[in-house]
Design a protein that fits this description.
It contains nine helices and nine strands. The chain is of the alpha/beta class. It has a domain of 67 residues. It binds adenosine-5'-triphosphate. The site of adenosine-5'-triphosphate has 11 residues, from strand 2 and helix 1.
Length: 235
């Protein structure tokens, strides 16, 4: 689904990614981990066609996202911090706005809200939602056009355990429908709960990639220990 081949990305004199090779398979939930500044956002920008690799190639569903950005983004849903919702609009107005942008029906917007268990929030102002409600609406907004690929950036940051558990259930549901999920998170429990494989970036280089259990076995005992060993104290 996503392939990065020998990708280097420089911003002027800053090298954000160095010779990155990554293959994310259709239908898998893949965790993109790394300390602040490691290159996670840069990787997403390359995948979404919002940045061009300085060297190497990026492919999403066989397409070059820089050349075919619109086609790639049509297949992508994104949940970023804040949910990309307009606070002064109701939930339903927000959904209709995005449905219009993607050229999908009101029915699709309605179905997305139902799938995320958020149809009772339809007439609420987005700015007045709790964090958990907002994230469910943000997910509905991200999936209403039926994307094959979903990028989730810290999806449960600041949520209580119950809301986190509910959101994880919704994310697993999407996975079971065959959606490929790229998850960026600093919450190792979340990563373990959701991801088939993870890649750990450190200063723009990949320092580990594999199933959470394999990383723990090699660098553990916990995923947090593995993360610290690979990106922190032991280096
Ligand atoms: P965080 O967890 O803090 O969001 P990140 O892993 O997403 O970090 P990136 O935002 O990809 O990291 O940044 C990687 C490196 O590239 C950093 O050194 C950052 O300062 C640099 N960088 C990112 N975008 C730009 C830009 N537009 N111009 C210059 N440097 C940039």
């Amino acid at each position: 689904m996503i392939q990065l081949i020998n990708v280097t990305k420089r911003y002027g004199t800053v090298t954000a990614l160095t010779d990155l090779n990554l293959k994310i398979h259709e239908g898998e939930t893949f965790g993109l981990l790394g300390p602040n500044g490691a290159g996670k956002t840069t990787t997403l920008r390359l995948v979404a066609g919002l940045a061009r690799p300085t060297e190497g190639q990026v492919r999403v569903a066989g397409l070059d996202p820089w050349e075919r950005g619109d086609a790639v983004r049509r297949q992508m849903g994104v949940v970023l911090d804040g949910g990309l919702l307009y606070n002064d609009l109701t939930v339903w107005e927000n959904l209709l706005l995005f449905a219009g942008l993607f050229g999908v029906s009101e029915r699709a917007a309605h179905d997305a809200l139902v799938q995320m268990g958020a149809s009772d929030l339809k007439n609420r102002l987005a700015g007045k939602l709790s964090k958990g409600q907002r994230q469910r609406v943000a997910l509905a907004r991200a999936i209403l056009h039926g994307p094959r690929l979903l990028y989730l950036d810290e999806p449960t940051s600041g949520l209580d355990p119950l809301a986190t558990d509910e959101l994880h259930r919704l994310i697993r549901n999407l996975r079971s429908q065959g959606v490929t999920i790229l998850l960026s998170s600093h919450d190792m429990a979340e990563v373990e709960a959701l991801c088939d494989r993870v890649c750990i970036l450190q200063r723009g280089r990949m320092v580990a990639c594999g199933a959470p259990a394999a990383l723990k076995a090699e660098h553990g005992p916990s995923l947090t220990d593995a993360f610290i060993q690979l990106t922190g104290r032991a280096q």
